[in-house]
Write a structure and sequence with these properties.
alpha+beta; Diaminopimelate Epimerase, Chain A, domain 1; 2 domains; twelve-stranded mixed sheet
Length: 270
């Protein structure tokens, strides 16, 4: 017997190659119909649309323009996603929710978003008030999601998949997982980055919270006074701005970069 299916529209966005399936759920009715397996299928690059994650625009609360519900490509709900946050700001503007500036809620709290005159999208990120030194080359910090940042002289030759997976599944991090960032300091204010993302369980072309973590960790490690960092990810360039209040306290953090639609369509939802 055939089961009824609902066809829902989506728009595929990417932020520096970090790609997402965007769905309008302002009715608040779709999330309950989406199983973990269905989301993972939709994100599959062979059998589905293909994406690093799926994002729902949901009704705002407490004065927010909207709520951002984020799922990793394994179908599980996750903590905040920086590039996804920038993409949802662009998508919400296309839906007419705002006119270029907004305040929205994510799982880690409030964020501001704005579309700049050059078309780039900026979002405010959470303050960082704790940085843990793991060894001489690595630190751990939380920028909306947990990140392990390790510094290397040449990240081009690193096997990010295997080395990142090994760190992500090491005893301190295995239970909850952690994102692993390999960072190359070019000079004060400029770095290269490659990231292994938990939930995706692979290297991604960019990771917004990872880019922020890498910039702040670079300022922390080098003791640089530079407050604006250019970050070169595999999928493109982003910028991180912040105010350094003390060695371990960074505030007024902003992530800026591209957030553009690539295609749209409809997908069947059981």
């Amino acid at each position: 017997m055939d089961h009824a299916q609902t066809s829902i529209p989506f728009v595929k966005y990417h932020g520096a190659g970090n790609d997402f399936i965007m769905i309008d759920d302002r009715s608040g009715t779709l999330e309950a119909l989406m199983s973990e397996a269905w989301i993972a299928h939709a994100c599959h690059r062979r059998f589905g649309i293909g994406a690093d994650g799926l994002i729902l625009v949901q009704p705002g609360r407490n004065g927010a323009d909207f709520f951002m519900r984020y799922y990793n490509s394994d179908g599980r709900t996750s903590t905040f996603c920086g590039n996804g946050g920038r993409c949802i700001v662009a998508y919400a503007a296309a839906l007419g929710i705002h006119q270029g500036a907004c305040r929205f809620l994510g799982t880690d709290g409030w964020h501001e978003g704005k579309i700049l005159p050059d078309g780039l999208v900026s979002i405010s990120m959470k303050d960082v008030d704790e940085i843990t030194q793991m060894d001489h080359e690595a630190v751990v910090l939380h920028t909306g999601s947990p990140h392990y940042v390790t510094f290397r002289k040449d990240i081009g030759s690193i096997d990010v998949f295997h080395e990142g997976r090994s760190i992500r599944n090491s005893p301190p991090f295995k239970a909850d997982g952690i994102n692993v960032n390999f960072v190359q300091l070019l000079h004060e204010g400029e770095i290269n980055i490659r990231t292994y993302e938990r939930g995706v369980e692979d290297e991604t072309y960019a990771c917004g919270t990872g880019v922020v973590a890498a910039a702040i960790a670079s300022a922390f490690k080098s003791n640089a006074e530079v407050s604006s960092w250019s970050v070169h990810a595999k999928g493109g360039d982003l910028r991180v701005d912040f105010k350094r209040m003390s060695d371990h306290h960074f505030t007024d953090v902003w992530l800026t970069g591209p957030a553009v639609p690539s295609f749209s369509g409809n997908i069947s939802l059981p």
